[in-house]
Amino acid sequence: MTEMGTVVAIGEWARVQGWGLAGVEVLGGEDRAAVQHSWDSLGYDVSVVILTPAAAEALADRLDGSALPLVAVMPP
């Protein structure tokens, strides 16, 4: 059996809170600094990060296209 990593959602609370119902860890991101803090706090067990468009914009210079974590951006 393969162990799955953690799935995290980062962004504005109103856009990400529902992901918690599906077992996703929800991290804050109401402004650029909060998004960057949440990103920097990700553990090594995180395999997927779901970002709001605003969070993706705040992290544009940090998203390098590496394999992990896999990053998905919500539609606007």
Number of DSSP strands?
A: 4
The helix/strand order is EHEHEHE
Distance between the termini: 36 Å
Binned, the helix content reads 25-40%
Major sheet attributes = 4 strands, parallel
**Structural class by sheet pairing and helices:** alpha/beta
Average pLDDT taken over every residue = 92
Number of helical elements: 3
**In terms of per-residue confidence, which ranges show pLDDT below 50 for 5 or more consecutive residues?**
none
What is the CA-based Rg, rounded? 12 Å
Strand content: 15-25%
Structural description of this entry:
This protein has a 4-stranded parallel beta sheet. The protein is globular. The protein contains 3 helices and 4 strands. The chain is of the alpha/beta class and 76 residues long. The chain has helices at 13-16, 32-40, 53-58; strands spanning 6-10, 25-27, 46-51, 70-73.
Descriptive tags:
single chain; 76 residues; alpha/beta; four-stranded parallel β-sheet; 4 strands; 24% strand; globular
Q: How are the SSEs placed, and which strands pair?
A:
Layout: E1 6-10, H1 13-16, E2 25-27, H2 32-40, E3 46-51, H3 53-58, E4 70-73
Parallel strand pairs: 1-2, 1-3, 3-4
In short:
By secondary structure, this protein is α/β, with parallel strands linked by helices.
